[in-house]
Amino acid sequence: MSYLDNIRTFVRVYELGSMSAAGRDLRISPAVTSSRISQLEEHLSVRLFQRTTRSLTPTEQGKAFYGGASEILEAVEMAEAKVVNITDNPKGALYVAAPLGVGRRLIAPLVPGFLTQYPEVKIRLRLTDRKVDLTTEGLDLAFFLGQPEDSNLRIRKIADVERILCASPGYVATYGNPATGDALLSGEHECLNLRFPGATEFQWRLQTPEGPKRFRVTGRYESDDGDVLTDWALAGNGIAMKPVFEVADHVKAGRLVQVAVQTPPEPIQMACLFTHRRRQDPKTRLFMEYVIARITETVRDSALQAQLPR
To answer: Are 245 and 268 in contact (CB under 8 A)?
Structure first.
């Protein structure tokens, strides 16, 4: 087994915090994963991880080695890029994260086409509505909605995404169609809320005649999965705030209707996030450009958006 393979395995174990998770990610067995780490520790004559039956924690030596190991892998990728026509033949695994709705409807459908064009690239797509950390999770690129908190990362804006407040026709027939955001606070309506880790309250930023205003909404329903909110809305359980592209088919088919038309939500930014070094990786750049070129028109010029009343 090559020393580089051992280093690559160590980096993924460190980033994912688990031998089994790293093994699944690298498509190798737990026994091979453990063997590679043991070989590396024997070579270095240090313990890289403290292992128990329930946890795996990097030692101080492991933490120190991780920085250099990551740089080694980066250097190898850059060296390969110099001797291979990388634009025509990029290689290696690309770790990409996206929110569930964005990932399922916009990113995932594009992956097969990209891999057909670049057959030596492997896409590792992680879909989650929680905030991700590119560095600690070993990600190359993350698509997201909103504003990033980490100013040390680079951002590429894709579009401003229209959003709507929507509910099922059955819900509107029973509880009425709130005309404005203020009606949402009357206690007569159920707001379906997307929960982020660490969030202490739910705020919907709506456009009013006086300008943008934050509404602190409440409700009995909350989830960290945006698609669950859509399902609840379709079932008549309340009002959801959704990006238009996520619910376009349901609105066109009449399964959902727009509510609070006088105070619609502010658009939300869609962008992708990457580290300074990852921007130099050709496969990262190629995938980012490939995806952006194909989803920008979908997001900006959705036929549904032109049909929405204002």
So the answer is: no
